[in-house]
Here is the input.
Amino acid sequence: MSDGRDIIEVHDLQKIYRVGKVEVPALRGVDLTVTAGEFLSIIGPSGSGKSTLFHIIGGLTPPTSGRVLVDGRELAAMSDGDRTRLRRRTVGFVFQKFNLLPNLTARDNIAVARHIAGMDRKSNPQFEEILRLLGIASRLDHKPSALSGGEQQRVAIARAIVNHPAILLADEPTGNLDTENSKAVLEILRDLNDRLGQTVLMITHNPEAASYGHHTVHMRDGRITERI
Amino acid sequence: MIAKLVLENLKHKPMRSLLSFLLIGVPVTLILTLVGLSHGMLADAERRARGSGADIIVRGSNTQAGLSGGSATLPEKFLEFFAMQPHVKYVTGVVQHNIELPLTINGIDLEQFNQMSGGLQYLQGGPFRGPYDVIIDRYYADQKKKHAGDTIELINRPWHVSGVVEGGQLAHILVPLQTLQRLDSATGRLTQINLKLDNPANTDLVIAALKKQLPAYTIWSIREMATALEESVNQQGLNEFIGVIIGIGVVIGFAVVCLSMYMAVLQRTREIGILKSLGGSKIFILQIVWAEALLLGLGGTAFGILMSYGARWAIVTLKPASFQVEIVYYWWPIAAAITLVGASLGALYPGLSAARHDPIEALAYE
Here is the structure.
């Protein structure tokens, strides 16, 4: 499904968090390239810098130094407002804890993402097809509290892709799910990648989950140690 | 979408929303009741003055003396003087004695008063039959739970209620003129003289002629008296008092909304992080907090308006003669504006605080 274009380019990326007067390096010179349409798994122990890499690529936090190009745009030069705009259309997030708005129905959780991106509230036929693919078409009028973990994560995936982002960032998407639901979610991600050519970056602790990606990147101590 | 988010947020914490409405509504009720009280009292005074049948009222030698009851400064001999003036059909004198504020006892010559007013409408009993008889209107009768034939205590002595009349004619409490003059050591003096003309159209003409002859006295048409009453009330600091209550309203609205929204922002830190991860801008987050604050303000105003009906019911039930409260509709949008100003100011700090949240920290919030 890859069209050969590099959609993410990371060069010598460093991120240092300041905790009081102490500087804590989270990324110590990461180089990474992801081509459009690729499904890349990122695996590594806690504190290896996976999530920080994710947050920088997703525009949630700026890098300390280095170069990060996302869909041709340099993140280091972006203002807070620019990064906010990047999150609207270019990246979609799926989180371990689903992160749905608890007071809204599944339908409205998806509609919020469209509203923020400035898009028409009505979804298109292609998106209706995706809802059927995700198996949540009949559950859209329920609030998160009335949905199972697997259903919530599917709604979160629907919300993440509703604006057709260039990149889907999934941070431990199966971390809160049982084996059956984990498998279903991973198959959905692979299906989205196969059918729609959706670029997917997935963080996981689980080697079995990582195997759903085309490639796997191993991280340790803020560095990429291996790419398979 | 913002409206839906805000409505769902309010529905999600109904007790918080209800308490906020209630607290914001209290100053709205205070403002509306106070304004309603001033309007009601003035309207009642004007209605009773008109109900006396008079076209012109003559009082003491300055405005304050003219407006306050109890100062019997007009010689009773003036009645003959006024009766001889062109266009004057009937003349009657009144002595007023202040009792519990704002009530006054009015001493009248019942025969003259009936000629001028067209007669009292008795609901129970009838006219005075003795010097210590009193006629009360139905409002005062309700307030004191009295009926014709009962005895009431006024000016440190018992009075026999000879009749209960429909209200709106001069005063809530009427007694024989000479009795009140004697009790007030004001024999031969009056507080007020009422004139009824052959034609109300001659009012200005007669007033002009009287003012030439009696420049030191207060001579008003009923309309001028109502205006003077209103000005007098305002001079006594009512406007300033309403201003203070408005200030308190803004402060309470600010404080309630600030506290409520600050708590809401704290509770929804993770949700703010979610919205930010979806690309929600600072302005978008601020709009949500602000819209919720405005909705709390509007709900509080509605609560306040409802409670002002309750306050009015309580006041007119407990003190129907002493206090009259009107519902002053044009003050509703003013009260709403006052509340919304307070709510907007109150939303500023929590809104900015929410907008400044770091998305990663917000998403990690438990």
Q: What stands out?
A: Chain A has a mean pLDDT of 89. Residues 100 and 203 of chain A are 19 Å apart (CA to CA). Chain A touches chain B at residues 55, 58, 60-61, 81, 84-89, 93, 95, 99-104, 108, 111-113, 115-117, 121, 159 (CB under 8 Å).
